[in-house]
Every structure is written in C-alpha cells, then in structure tokens.
Design brief:
Length: about 120
C-alpha cells in the first residue's frame, strides 16, 4: 500500500520561505518519479514541480527560479523548497507519484496548506 505523507506547510508572509517534505512508503522510491502539485480555492489542481528517477527536474513557469524540488532516496523523501513566496502561491500542496514508470500520477498525499499573506 503506497502512502505519501506531506508536512511543512504553514502561514508565511510574502517574500518568505518554506520547505515542504513528503515521505513515501510502499513503493520503490528510487525508481519512482515524484511531483508536487497544488490547488488553490476555486482553481484546478496544477503541476508545480517534477523530479525524475535520476533527478531531472521541471517546473511550472510561475515558480521557476523560486522553487526547488529535490529528493533523498535514502530517506524516501521528496522536498519542495519555496523561496520568495507570493500570495498567489497560497494553495494546498500535494505530493504525487505515478503508478508505473512514465505513467499518470495515481498516488497522492493528503496535502499540506500553504498560506502566504501580503
């Protein structure tokens, strides 16, 4: 049974930083791409950052240069470092993993709330 558990969200002022963590279990973490998505109130969920099995990364245009995704395979953990946060980054952030290599994201965490005040 795959479980993804996020932590690290909170309330921060604009310009501040947070680091989200996601601990995975029940999958071969080192063989799995991982991603962070977010969903703001009244908006569709969007992909924020992706990291491949070998550490290649991709970002949404809106967060490039401010967010950094990384992974620690020894700890089965993926991180999202968020700098220079903006009020529009306010959302629930979800960790996700695909069901197979190259497949769709089918495993999701419960989410962690990030609120950025102006």
């Amino acid at each position: 049974q795959v479980q993804l558990v996020e932590s690290g969200g909170g309330l921060v002022q604009a310009g501040g930083s947070l680091r989200l963590s996601c601990v995975a279990s029940g999958l071969v973490f080192g063989w799995s791409a991982m991603a962070w998505h977010r969903q703001a109130p009244g908006k569709e969920r969007e992909l924020v950052a992706h990291i491949s099995e070998i550490g290649n990364t991709d970002y949404a245009e809106s967060v490039k240069g401010r967010f950094t995704i990384s992974r620690d395979n020894a700890k089965n953990t993926v991180y999202l470092r968020m700098n220079n946060l903006k009020p529009e980054d306010t959302a629930i952030y979800y960790c996700a993993a695909p069901g197979r290599i190259g497949g769709e994201y089918v495993y999701w965490g419960q989410g962690t709330q990030v609120t950025v005040s102006s």
